[in-house]
Amino acid sequence: MGCPGRKTLSFFLIFVPVCLHGALSQEAGPAGPRKPFFERLRRLEEQFRRFQEVTLTHLRGIASNYNVSYNVDVRFRSLAEESQAVALAVNQSQAAVQGDLAHLRARMRKMERKSRKADSRLRALDLALGEKSEPRARERKVQKDAAAGLARDVQALRDTLARLSDLVHRQGARLAALEGRLHMATLGAMAPAPVPGPGPAQPDRPRLGSPKLQRGRQALGAAPEPGSAAQDSAQGTRGRPASGGHQTPNGAAAAPPAQTPERPGETCPAGPVLVFPNASTENVVPLGPGFPTALRALSFCSWVRTASGRLGTLLSYATEDNDNKLVLHGRDSLAPGSVHFVIGDPAFRELPLQLLLDGRWHHVCVLWTSVQGRYWLHVDRRLVAAGSHFREGYEIPPGGSLVLGQEQDSVGGGFDSSEAFVGSVSGVAIWDRALVPGEVASLAAGRELPTGAILTLANATRVGGFVQRANCTCLELCP
Fold it and tell me: How many domains does the chain have?
């Protein structure tokens, strides 16, 4: 890069003396008709100055180009040195990598030999285990098939049990209806017979105390008739003599003392009664301590008499994760007198309870089982509603808060006066199983509670607000 600049400088250094020499030789020539010498010398000086300026400018440009070229040469040399260092480092790294690769290849060959040995051993072990495990595999397959067959049998038994349970409830409802008809027929037989007059002979009717009628009632499971020997043995004759009457002074049998006759279908259960006089939010009766274990089946039975022409909340069970785990309330029902039977909000079924709006005592039983989600509603021994696939396989958890008369929006609280129950309840009981129709009919007849009740009114921890507790010899006589 510096060679052209030096050549140009040498050219100017040679060219300038040559020009000066030519000028001096012209001045030394023969005189003639020319301009004066000093004028020529002045012009030469001016030309020399201009030439000097031009030369100086060219020299400066050459010098600047020389510096640039020198810097470029220095950079090229540094880059060459760096490239040599990089090439050396690359060579060294390649050598190291090749050494590592050679080491890895040696390791891989060793691992391959070891893996081949391990594979041969594993194949030998597989063969040995296969020979020994074939009987076990066959046994496991047989057990699996047996378990699958057992599961199918269990499911079939569950389906059969559900159908039988529904059939039993329907037959129980029919039996209760037949018992009611028999009771009415018996009450009709108690009426005094008209005096027979002339006419065709009347067929013989069974008397009130005839063995045939008593055997028929016992076969249907009905209560013995008043004044009968069966009733005397079951109820202690309520103070009457064992002979069914008393003796007159002359020894003749007299008629039994007069009693208030029962109306058709009327029963006379007795026990403690809870009266909810108004719709106050303080009218709450907790039943503690809630459900002791998880429930996969449920029976809730109670005598109920409403006083406001509508149904509020009969029962409410709340837990921390759901305040409507189990509810019987009528606030959101579509038809007056019906209630929502809620299990694990928001799932519910609407139950028709319009029969309870007449202001009289009625017996109510609500039954549910998680097997196929079946449920039944009995009112006064009659099956008035039934269904399936309601919370099938569900489990009501324990440890919650159970109250009567109010619907809980939180555990033990969040009451609303519009959801309150106004009326009276008696004989409240809860079972962790579905009662059979015979047990429901027995409860509706005023007999003792079936065994296994997990909660009753005896578990009431307190009676809040304006709720009153009363004991009545007969619910029909309660105020």
Answer: 2
